[in-house]
Design brief:
single chain, 117 residues, mainly alpha, two-stranded antiparallel sheet, 2 helices, rod-shaped
Amino acid sequence: MSAELPPQVQNQIAQLQQIQQQIQALSMQKSQIEAMQKESKMALEELERLADDAIVYRNVGELVIKTSKGESITKLKDREETLSLRLQSITRQEERLTSRFKQLQEQIQQALGTRAE
């Protein structure tokens, strides 16, 4: 069947498949970032319940270091902000790719529709 399709349509189908894979990859990244955001939010909620003079430890790579409650809250809020920005960026990329996907899909359907007639 693909031998019957014009090269332009074959190229569009290849682009469509590539965009679909990119959308799936972005969706996975988005899910991971959302999970990290949820984890940070839960940690922040727990920290805010602690007394101001509570001893807090946090992971830094493979180390666990002693830190203040305030410093930990600041780090978590910075992390949440960074994750939020990454999530916004991924969402915009996802929207652009979805729009391009629909556009290509319509072009392919039109090309195949005119060939069927």
